[in-house]
Amino acid sequence: MVEQCTVLEVKVIEGHGTTIDVVLVNCVLHEGDQIVVCGLQASINLGPIVTTIRALLTPHPMKELRVKGTYVHHKEIKAAQGIKITAQGLEHAIAGTALHVTEPDDDIEAMKEQAMEDMESVLSRIDKSGEGVYVQASTLGSLEALLEFLKSPAVKILISGIGIGLVHKTDIFNVHPSTFKFTERSL
After folding, report:
1. CA neighbours closer than 13 Å in the CB half-sphere of residue 53
2. Do the beta carbons of residue 159 and residue 135 sit within 8 Å?
3. Translation initiation factor IF- domain location, by residue (predicted)?
4. Which fold has domain 125-181?
């Protein structure tokens, strides 16, 4: 069976650290399972995140996943529901990408490549010359939509770099040199 689990949001929850909200469609997750998700660090370093699930959390019955408060801990969760996962190293996970669950006999390197396919298709659309604007979006889907719009014949804006997630100081430094070089294209 092919697992289907999508990362919806990456956020820091007090008392839990960085968590990912996911929609689990057709597999089973256990505390202690090893997972692989797509990661992007400082808008430069692209790489998969391999980590172990520390906790599987769901909101109390009749509550939303987005609402702050206490959560119900689970040792195992079966599909089709929204869950919150806590694990080490999720700070740079990318919302909108797939989460892959590894089995003991799985090839981890192949799983890493599979996890990065979504992001690599987006990166292939970027002009490598260094000319153009820097585009930042909250999720991979939002980024893809922005890139399609900016490359459309009506707009035709060059893109020199991308980022996903909150805007950080390093993102501003990535943009800064291009504003001096191409003042007619800067915002």
Report:
1. 28
2. yes
3. 110-174
4. Rossmann fold (3.40.50)
> Which neighbouring-strand residues pair with 44?
none
Domain boundaries of the chain, sorted by first residue: 5-119, 125-181
pTM of this structure = 0.73
Q: Considering the domain delimited by 5-119, tell me its CATH architecture.
A: Beta Barrel (2.40)
116 phi/psi in degrees, rounded to 5: -90, -5
Which residue is listed with tokens 């998969």? 48
Nearest to 64 by CA among 15, 104, 9: 9
Q: Do residues 65 and 58 lie in contact, with contact meaning Cβ atoms separated by under 8 Å?
A: yes
Other Cβ atoms less than 10 A from the Cβ of 157: the count is 13
What's the distance, Cα to Cα, between the start and end of the chain in Å?
Answer: 48
